Batch of 2 targets.
Target 1
Amino acid sequence: MSPASPRRRLPLPSWLPASRWLADYQRRDLSADGLAAVIVTLMLIPQSLAYALLAGVPAQMGLYASILPLVAYALFGSSRTLAVGPVAVISLMTAAAAGQVAGGDSATFLLATTVLALLSGLMLVGMGLLRLGWVANLLSHSVIGGFISASGLLIAASQLKHLLGIPLHGDTLWALGASLLAQTGRIQWTTVILGLLTLAFLFWARSGLKSLLARTRLSASAADLVSKAAPVLAVILTTLAVEGLDLRRAGVATVGAIPGGLPALSLPAFDAELWRALLLPALLISLIGFVESVSVAQTLAAKRRQRIDSNAELTGLGMANLASAVSGGFPVTGGFSRSVVNFDAGARSPLAGILTAVGIALTALFFTPWFQALPKATLAATIIVAVLSLVDLGALARTWRYSRADGLAMAVTMAGVLLMGVEVGVIAGVLSSLLLFLWRTGQPHVAELGQVPGTEHFRNVQRHQVQVSPSVLSLRVDESLYFANARHLEDQIYDCVMQRPQIRHVVLLCSAVNQIDASALDSLESLNQRLGDAGVTLHLSEVKGPVMDRLRRSPFPKHLHGRIFLTHFDALRALDPASLAPPP
Amino acid sequence: MSPASPRRRLPLPSWLPASRWLADYQRRDLSADGLAAVIVTLMLIPQSLAYALLAGVPAQMGLYASILPLVAYALFGSSRTLAVGPVAVISLMTAAAAGQVAGGDSATFLLATTVLALLSGLMLVGMGLLRLGWVANLLSHSVIGGFISASGLLIAASQLKHLLGIPLHGDTLWALGASLLAQTGRIQWTTVILGLLTLAFLFWARSGLKSLLARTRLSASAADLVSKAAPVLAVILTTLAVEGLDLRRAGVATVGAIPGGLPALSLPAFDAELWRALLLPALLISLIGFVESVSVAQTLAAKRRQRIDSNAELTGLGMANLASAVSGGFPVTGGFSRSVVNFDAGARSPLAGILTAVGIALTALFFTPWFQALPKATLAATIIVAVLSLVDLGALARTWRYSRADGLAMAVTMAGVLLMGVEVGVIAGVLSSLLLFLWRTGQPHVAELGQVPGTEHFRNVQRHQVQVSPSVLSLRVDESLYFANARHLEDQIYDCVMQRPQIRHVVLLCSAVNQIDASALDSLESLNQRLGDAGVTLHLSEVKGPVMDRLRRSPFPKHLHGRIFLTHFDALRALDPASLAPPP
């Protein structure tokens, strides 16, 4: 049998991204995809239950969110190895948003989580079709980084309730802390011991188990995969402990009965007010889910010299969320750790995702009774270990050292998330990074220039030994001219001239000006007028081609009292030749 | 008596801006200031009554807003000739904001207008103290221009009710139009005739009267001043007509009894909910009032080679609004037409403003009975003529021709103001100009470069006849690298390399890169990694000094697989010397 025989087995339309990888699918890929699917399924079962717990929904919804969404992404996504499903940060955002609109009503809460998946799916597909992927750029890396770290801390704090066996309420660090302090007397110590043991085991598995396995005959990557399966072992051991030691009687809370079977397909009920209230959270969930997922997909694609089309990614993730919504799930996206495991386990194509979905479907059909005695504390410990690896507080110091503005945006995001909740945090972060960007470019570096003697070069008078004309002021602006700096520059230059009554000409060197928008054009017009009224002539030099093309479409070159020189040296030669030093 | 005798007559503290102009006040300035004050007072009386009408408050509040605020600005402002008081656009914004919170209750409406002045005053003073004047830069010229034009149209439409003698309701063009169509049968024709005659006279005065006066022995500037006093003449003539022809019986609405006397000093009652609801409108009123006022002040200052300190202007306008709030007025700012008249009439110092305040105070004390028979139609005509001169629809076409993005922002602002009200309009405008800026700089111009044969210069391969290396890709990015374009550039460069398997090196020419923020640094790191994984080495060349200083504070230069070259020619000489053309 030729290796090409499985080609074009399925009559898929060519516009479907999946047709591309199915067209050259090889039989030998199947075993690789199958193995990866088994490993990811084992990893995904406890994760899907845990993230359902984090999102505040019944455990089976975690399984449902790990079946159809994986199939939808395999058909519509552009990454070959991204593993889609419930992830920690998105589950936290889902819980916060649904909690806000539900007001304590659990039916509304469940409906809200499904509506969030639906709205988020519609938004992502819409952005994909309109090629609006660039909107995600509003989230700067500092904001994303701060958001992920702070969310990790907040998630860990929120899971303390399962480790301590007491109900904690609140969406912020303060609220959770206050809730904890009020109930210290009610801590359930059997649960605490079980939870701490699980935590210790999971942390040890991350480092100790790996080096232990490395000493065996296992390859390094296999050792890595086995150590990543530690949560499965923890699930089995603690479930057996609960059954064997009858810990439920000692007060240990377990997952309890999970209805078996596959999800029924249906659309969430329409409720205009509820949908409207969830629009903004759904947008934030979409953007953050997309940014996180696409960066994982790109990192993995680069390792095999493949490429990710970010608009196709939007559609793929959107379809995954729509699939989640119609099958009773909640918002999903591409997860970092699962995707890395999928890649490392050798997944060759999105078929691995489809096979994983089959694995979870089988679990939902046949194995749910096995999780009845699974302690919630185990799942909480799994979550805590997973999210604490996302927390990178050192990034704050590193970013601050590199750029005060970015560090500040990160700090604002983190403080917002921890003290005022995920939504306020991300919005405060976006606004502060925008304002800081405008503030920074709003006060651009303006250098006064002089001639480097004997050359045609002009340099900053404060940094170099240069020749300066008494009547011609040479200024270089190191920034595009646009609305955020137009007025400031106009004033700065005007004030600078007013302080030196002997100045007759101002020449603006525009070599670093990549754009001049309409506001800056108005400011140049007004500067030209104000300087003219004060008896000073404004000139430009070294205007870039595209900028000059645009200026020619305006009346400014006609209004300009001075000239536009090709080079700054030309300007000085025309305006004050006596000031120029002769060549040595 | 020496001309220096009036120096330092008042023991003012030196931190008060007024101490500066009082210190060198000359006796001969007094007569100039006095004359200007008389002319501005005559102009301000009908304007203050008209803008009170526009703001929806009793006529005397217009007078009150023209007394203490002028004194406060004279003491704290930095412009020598700016005439502060009620202005059209701010009065419209006041009416819209107060109308929204009052819900038809006139006591709440009046309280809201005073609270708006108070909040706006506090915000302006606060921004002045914190030196936050740059926040006003968020309002691009396109947004301001579109806002002023659209507000002018909306104000003119809103005044139709006084010209037609029917009550019109609504804050948008649609609402006003619908209200008008529903009441066409109730139009008060005597009022219409009176209003149209006044309108015709005022329009004629703007052009015809001026040229008529120019033929007399009056100087051009005096003719200009007299023609600007036409509203006063209109007020006198129509008041006499109402009295003489008993037009009130024919249904012509008049200003009615205005309580005489000076305003009592008091603070508006505190109402947390009301204040909170007015925070955003007060911020918008502050910013728009400030931007409009400061540009007038700067234009006038330039004509006498004086300077405006924008932070002092914030404080000055803030104190004027606080003064308005404690004396029963509504929000004020520097007005364009009055300031020009003040300047042209020869005002030398802010004393002209104080004398104008005395003039208005005398009016409030003794002359209010004279306005009892003044028809509202006359005031409406005054407003319409004044605001239609602000409408510049051609600006939309001009801006669009220069820059699609700016034109679009202006169109969004205008449509927002006309169809959804002033607040929505200005917010939509600001957001759209921000998003368009991010979108534009988010997809920067990236040129592939080749060597101009025989030189050390590198130019765009699409525009010039150049020499290209088969293994080294030379790219120049014409934009600072920051969060809005970082990810896009990373993908663009990576995809570009993936399409050409023969490429071994990528050199990024950074001569137009004024900044690299933390997001862009992350993207460079990731690009370096992704290219490295694909067997391609990333290099930089011609990095600017300040950008390089900052990069050195990060681990990026260490992580970079390639090198950072001083010049692009150096890079090619090191990486692929064979590709370089020899000098001719």
Note: The first strand of chain A starts at residue 84 and ends at 85.
Target 2
Amino acid sequence: MNKLAKSLANYVPLTPVTFIKRASVVYSNRTSIIYGRTSFTWRQTYERCCRLSYSLRSLNLYRNDVVSVLAPNIPALYEMHFAVPMAGAVLNAINTRLDAKNIAAILRHSEAKVFFVDYEYVPQASVALRLLMVGSKGQHRMPLVVEIDDINKPKGVSLGKLEYEQLINDGNPEYSGEKLEDEWDAIALNYTSGTTSEPKGVVYSHRGAFLSTMSLIQGWEMGTEAVFLWSLPMFHCNGWTFTWGVAARGGTNVCIRNTTAEEIYKSISTHNVTHMCCAPVVFNILLEAKAHERRRIISNVNILTGGAPPAAALLEKMEDLGFHITHAYGLTEATGPALVCEWQSKWNQLPRDQQMRLKARQGVSILTLADVDVKNKKTMESVPHDGKTMGEIVLRGSSIMKGYLKDEKETAKAFQKGWFLTGDVGVIHPDGYIEIKDRSKDVIVSGGENISSVELEAILLKHPVILEAAVVAMPHPRWGESPCAFVVLRKTGSTTETEILAYCMKYMSKFMVPKKVEFVEVLPKTETGKVLKKELREVAKTLKIYNKPRKTIDLEMNV
Amino acid sequence: MNKLAKSLANYVPLTPVTFIKRASVVYSNRTSIIYGRTSFTWRQTYERCCRLSYSLRSLNLYRNDVVSVLAPNIPALYEMHFAVPMAGAVLNAINTRLDAKNIAAILRHSEAKVFFVDYEYVPQASVALRLLMVGSKGQHRMPLVVEIDDINKPKGVSLGKLEYEQLINDGNPEYSGEKLEDEWDAIALNYTSGTTSEPKGVVYSHRGAFLSTMSLIQGWEMGTEAVFLWSLPMFHCNGWTFTWGVAARGGTNVCIRNTTAEEIYKSISTHNVTHMCCAPVVFNILLEAKAHERRRIISNVNILTGGAPPAAALLEKMEDLGFHITHAYGLTEATGPALVCEWQSKWNQLPRDQQMRLKARQGVSILTLADVDVKNKKTMESVPHDGKTMGEIVLRGSSIMKGYLKDEKETAKAFQKGWFLTGDVGVIHPDGYIEIKDRSKDVIVSGGENISSVELEAILLKHPVILEAAVVAMPHPRWGESPCAFVVLRKTGSTTETEILAYCMKYMSKFMVPKKVEFVEVLPKTETGKVLKKELREVAKTLKIYNKPRKTIDLEMNV
């Protein structure tokens, strides 16, 4: 058995680049990309990738070199998902919502050799490049800048001399890319948005990207000929790997520049969209769309959602509109979704609200993960499957990142005892499904008891006049930490701190009742809709514990 | 990028064993196996595998040791697909249709350490063991024999002392298997049935088995909760990897001992079967079933067929019965199916017979193959995508076998210039779909021209009184080789050699017309329905070229 050696025929490094080579043959005349009046077939898209890849090599780009790009969901960004790794380089898609300072920090940290900039982002990019130049004091080699002009209506290049379509034109369509020698080689670099700490550069391997793509297509049951709407930014974990996945299934990419309700509804009805991904925050955009922006959803549109836990009620409203939602949980370090809330046919018999509660859970591991567990972080023992005992969600498998770029300390912190620690706290239900209770850092430790802020928020949200709620820890002289609730009221409602605390006394264990309720107009959030609890914790430090006006509440609250 | 090292958290060897560990958690209470009145849940099946694996280790089984098994599609054989690799050993499922001499040869060649025998196969196994003992002259260490009694109705052990359920009972349910260090390690050993040469021992790696399983679930779009009927023997490429695949999807295995029409129809209607695999030869069994054996197919039963090219007419008849058929092409060396005839929605508009002709093609590569091509074997240049130019089908990728056990010569012959040579001759159509024209050894080279025997057979089958046809090469003094046709006539029909040759003149290029037509009662076949052309070629050598009675035909035939 041992004498049978690996050969070129039976051991080929795994890489998602194979998906587009295959698509160019198998789905050659099928539409690969639609973007306004531009559309390509898979043969054309592959040819454009070959050309771009060739041009990148001509720019003296080598293995492990970083190519940064600042662009919305346009064909160029899609093509770069294949062309950059074909050139042996590493794709770094930058979050377009970042300010110039952050962009400069990423360009500096990643040592980007080439920087592609969409014409609309020239202003931020220009400032970022200036900051980079000044900050480096001549020490930093500036990246070569390539502007991506509007493919539908070119406006002329204003940043530097190179333009994207020119690189495509100058490329060699016969060039099929560098030979990948090792599937452990880096394919992409994605900076975390970091709700709890500084941005970190997460590196994916070709192997990890390939395997994640395979299992997400499968976990979501995305069939062949899918029409995929790019409502999720490609810079989020490479579009949760569906950049590569749509090529694998020979689907059609519908690219849109702006994620507005009108644009989404229009694309769905014009192109018969079958699949789209988005954070729950997009649900509100769709639900609050004005009448003239809406279209009736007549086709079967499957939505994969994640990025923040969706409320069961929100899922229900979206399904009422005609969307079919699958809930997933993941993080940048896991190459996007790591758990999918796989539907069980027996749930079809349950009442609607129960179905939605089941669906709001984070779910079960994708197929290419070797193992997922919830563990007591101190003892590293598995929690019982009781739906109650909380522990840290830990992952293991080849779709986990290679590590954080140039950050041995954080990499070592993330990988402990053979597991990747997600920093999320959850439970395992008796049916094996995992539910997130909190971010590890958001758990409130009050008098030795762990309090899940997510649990308190869920109870607060059932209050008739509360629209949004976020609970964080505030310092407490006796208990160490105590819960502090920030609430946004409905426009039509009004209430008092005393009334809300009385409500909490009714529905929560006494030790869980917040020691302070603060009314706010809006909650600070990331662009994916995650509440920035770090900021709220800072505010909470400045607040005073509720000054009990009535004795009854007082007595009960200091259990 | 290069400093980020592999760790236990982010680099886990790929193996299908992870599928059952996951199933035991995620699908714990779902039915894993149904076999008569026996049924298990995934938690139980996993526990049984852990126990068996532990017992195997207790029998002093080590890494790379071979465990042979002679059994039909029973739960034990299914469980061994996980328990044997969990013990670090290599599973060798032997074709139950082989005679004692062949079984002995496999036991000898594989150096099996343990030999599991289903109670029904004790007679063959006993003879095989005696042959092994005699043949080895005391040189060969005899395998430890374990009998598998009937789990539904135990009959008592008659072969040796060990029994399967006893090993299960004696095992440790907490044992979770040996840690796999290298995904290149062997997981299975399957002997080819060999229509053209001696049986060879094909070795699969854990990596290859994992990847094949992933892409076949995908290529066939087998969703979660599939109910899979074991109509395909598990000893054929480990059930085309669906032994592992059903666990991956948390489906239910319906095991049957005999592949009779009655058993298949009954299982489909009793258990709402959604998926089954079989060679086209099973279609005839289902189509020719007697009225009392049949049931109406009301559920959506998906069939994956392969092993021999199915006639378009046969596909149509099966779909008329209510089956939905997907056609695949593969071979033992490719871990089962390597091409799948992926359906394209635009074909829905075509006339039925054209749909069936498209479906009868072998199709496009599965996702985990790195590359598939059709090449001129001499120059290794790719053939044009014209649907006409023939070449050898070649494959490359990590789902290709490790090689042939203890056969460097054949391994080297199979892997050439970075490709695995299938020995099958085909064409690529303009849409990228591959169609097989012949086995490489079955191509007839007449006066320098390649003649596809499959093409001639297809024409002969259109003749109103011909039921079956097989064309092979016969020696020809002038052309080197010439086609010789063996035909089976319909019971109601009669014709003459002269008439058939006149028919051929009408529908074939002149150089293709057979030089001899031989009428036979039946064609020699393998159990999967492949015609044994090697045998026919031997017969053809003894036949005389058609002695032209009329001048017109004579003239035309010697073009």
Note: Residues 325 and 349 of chain B are 17 Å apart (CA to CA).
